[in-house]
Write a structure and sequence with these properties.
By secondary structure, this protein is an alpha/beta fold. It is built from twelve helices and eleven strands.
């Protein structure tokens, strides 16, 4: 069913689903977190095809959440600094099942428990679940973590099940190299002058380059564009709506960015990518092993992914490294044969999220 009209708590407010039992998933984080959670959400969808699945996350991600094909509706929910939001605006009867994909602490578990669901699955054991939950492993890839968590509760989920179909909307710049210099936190933002250097070199090699940024990143995008002398028509300001961003990435020649949403979107669409890592290593948040994707990282002590200054490991990546990796991928083109299921051009079928 289509998203509900905007209500007092924002767009996509969940509606009562009639006789279908309702299942609530909490993952109220960012776009990259949503996309990294797709394998887990897909496992939940397959395991519960008769449920009306509701995902609690920020309302700005409603379009992206519905585009995954794994949920029926969105419950708008967000809190500052990636905190745990209140779910008190959940309408109607309690969900028959609630699943905490938000974190491993009692705060997210308790937010779901307050709704008195028939069953609650969480890393933080609620005390009523007969199965013992999986142990939290800090040195584990995000996709594998949540799939392993679900498997502990008898829900099969494949961490390589990452692909999404290309959107029907046309790309605003088909075949271009997409460079996204922004990130939610300064710790994951490579310097603007290095992005500009990379853009200049890619254009000198004959490639069209377009810049994108989030809704609050026009200053950064314009700074990079000015340094690189990029034409105004190749500067996509204001933060693209998800459908346009998804189409742009799906039909791009390459995506260059830090560890942020567009990097995960490139993985979801099988678009070649160069991703710059700093405070968090790629073995925790990077793409699946694939000739399509290059993860650049200099080993060192772990940093704060939400820090207020560029991470020292990120600053060790040079423009030569980024440009070299980008040109190598552009020269090779897309691989003729995928090496992992996550890279297969065929998107696996998912049971419909609609009755």
């Amino acid at each position: 069913m289509p998203p509900a009209p905007a209500g007092p708590h924002g767009a996509g407010m969940v509606r009562t689903a009639g006789p279908r039992p309702r299942l609530l998933v909490l993952r109220a984080l960012g776009l990259g977190d949503l996309l990294a959670g797709v394998p887990a959400l897909r496992g939940i969808r397959r395991a519960h095809p008769g449920h009306h699945i509701v995902l609690a996350l920020p309302p700005a991600l409603t379009e992206a959440a519905l585009a995954t094909g794994t949920v029926d509706e969105v419950l708008p929910a967000e809190a500052p600094d990636r905190g745990v939001p209140s779910l008190e605006h959940w309408p109607g009867p309690a969900p028959s099942l609630a699943i905490d994909l938000h974190g491993n602490g009692p705060e997210s578990r308790d937010a779901l428990a307050a709704l008195r669901p028939g069953r609650l699955l969480a890393f933080a054991h609620p005390g009523q679940e007969p199965r013992r939950p999986a142990d939290w492993r800090p040195d584990e890839h995000e996709r594998e973590r949540w799939c392993r968590f679900l498997r502990a509760y008898g829900i099969p989920a494949d961490p390589d099940d990452v692909r999404l179909p290309a959107p029907d909307a046309p790309s605003p710049a088909p075949g271009a190299v997409v460079v996204h210099p922004g990130a939610e936190a300064a710790a994951r933002r490579w310097p603007a002058e290095r992005y500009a250097d990379t853009v200049r070199r890619l254009r000198s090699a004959g490639h069209r380059v377009v810049l994108t940024g989030g809704p609050k990143e026009d200053g950064l995008v314009l700074d990079v564009a000015a340094r690189a002398a990029l034409p105004a028509g190749d500067v996509l300001r204001g933060g693209l709506p998800f459908g346009a961003l998804s189409a742009l990435v799906a039909h791009a020649a390459l995506v260059v960015s830090g560890d942020t949403g567009p990097a995960h979107l490139a993985v979801a669409h099988g678009t070649p990518s160069v991703t710059l890592f700093g405070p968090v290593p790629p073995h925790l948040w990077g793409p699946p092993p694939s000739p399509r994707h290059r993860a650049l990282w200099h080993p060192g002590p772990p940093g704060d992914p939400h820090g207020t200054a560029p991470d020292p490991q990120l600053l060790r990546i040079t423009a030569d490294e980024v440009t070299g990796a980008a040109l190598a991928l552009l020269r090779s083109g897309p691989p003729s044969a995928p090496t992992r299921k996550g890279d297969d051009d065929r998107v696996p079928p998912v049971p419909s999220a609609r009755p």
